[in-house]
Amino acid sequence: MSKFVAADFGSAAPLPKNPVDALVEQRTFFNDDRTHRFTLFRHWGNPEHYACGISMNPSGAAEEGDDPTVDRMIRRAMDLGFGAYYQLNVMSIRGTDSSHLATASEVNLSENDDHIRRIAARAGIVIVSWGNAGHKRGLEVEKILREVCDPAKVFCLGLNQNGSPVHPLYQKKNARLLPYIITPRP
């Protein structure tokens, strides 16, 4: 698997050029034109004992490559004793440079929420990290998490001033996980 791939904003993920692990292929989901990624799956042990991360929007990671965020979160899941990791995002559109989010016509497809519901509900731990730019959409994802998750299994690496969970790349690799309090909002 190659290291650290990037994506132009709204670009289609390339189809794999090499054979892909069957579980990675079965559990990684894109829309039909591959411009939106719903899930990214990696495993090294028991695939049913997984951690789940929910960040802002997918970068270049696909079946054959990771990005720095995914790499960091996989290492954290391994350190926590999980056998697999799902990367989810509050917005499904692919793109490394998030400054383009404001100009995109559609940053999230409704299927994304279905995947968040299904995967977060069964995760051993959910680590939220959508940052400042993902805050508005993150509030919608919080509602989903309240519906499907035990709040005791939802964590973050810290909070920004606006209350959004910090992005993992801007934290120390060994940053302590903190409970992420999901409280009902009016």
Describe this entry's structure for a reader.
This is DUF1643 domain-containing protein. InterPro entries: DUF1643. The chain has four helices and seven strands, in the order αβββαβαβαββ. The chain has a single domain (31-179), classed as Dna Topoisomerase Vi A Subunit, Chain: A, domain 2 (3-Layer(aba) Sandwich), CATH 3.40.1360. It is globular, with a radius of gyration of 15 Å. The protein has helices spanning 22-27, 68-79, 111-122, 135-148, and strands spanning 29-30, 37-43, 50-55, 84-89, 125-129, 154-156, 178-179. The relative contact order is 0.17. 24% of the residues lie in helices and 17% in strands. The longest helix is centred in the C-terminal third of the chain and has 14 residues, at 135-148. Helix 3 (111-122) packs across helix 4. It has a seven-stranded mixed beta sheet, sandwiched between helices. The chain is an alpha/beta fold and 186 residues long.
For this structure, the quaternary state is single chain
| Number of DSSP-assigned strands | 7
Question: Biggest sheet: strands, sense, closure?
Answer: 7 strands, mixed
Reported by name, the CATH topology is Dna Topoisomerase Vi A Subunit, Chain: A, domain 2
Write the element-wise H/E pattern from the N-terminal end onward. Answer: HEEEHEHEHEE
- Shape type: globular
Q: What is the C-level CATH assignment?
A: Alpha Beta
Distance between the termini: 45 Å
Q: Numbering strands along the chain, what is their spatial order in the largest sheet?
A: 1-2-4-3-5-6-7
Query: Stretches where pLDDT falls below 50 for ≥5 residues?
Result: none
Structural class: alpha/beta
Q: What is the number of domains? A: 1
DSSP strand content:
15-25%
What is the radius of gyration computed over CA atoms, rounded to a whole number of angstroms? 15 Å
Count helical runs: 4
Nearest-integer average pLDDT? 92
